[in-house]
Amino acid sequence: SGINAEYISSGINAEYRHNVYGFLDDEDGGDEEEQGFSYQQMEARDNRRWVLADVDKDGELTKEEFQAFLHPEDADHMRDIVVTETLEDIDKDGDGKINMEEYIGDMYSTEIEDCHS
Question: What is the C-alpha to C-alpha distance for residues 20 and 24, in angstroms, rounded to an integer?
């Protein structure tokens, strides 16, 4: 048995969406970015990952499919999404490429986070 039968356009399950992103429906301007972070973009990203994890395309995720959704790096059919998401995270100007400044900036911010943890 999968995770709830309701789903939105063969994508993220309605219950999952409500629990994770439901607050967006209650707030004005839910797409406003906070420090470059957009919940709408995050929801779209989760939806893309959900569709890819749903191997049998029934709109629900089995335990194995949900594991692939949560840990795409551990599933062969999900590895490309890890690369795509990492590229999107580092590509600050959104041109689909990583330039040296973006690469160095990403590496530098990781070092700062490591120093403060």
Answer: 9
88-104 per-position pLDDT tens digit: 999 999 999 999 999 99
Chain position carrying tokens 């795409």: 72
Say how far apart CA 39 and CA 15 lie, in whole Å: 17
Q: What is the token pair recorded at 117?
A: 């943890």
Cβ neighbours, 10 Å, residue 105:
14
At what angle are helices 14-21 and 39-53 packed, to 10 degrees?
150
pTM of the model as a whole: 0.67
**d(Cα 62, Cα 3) in Å, to the nearest integer?**
7
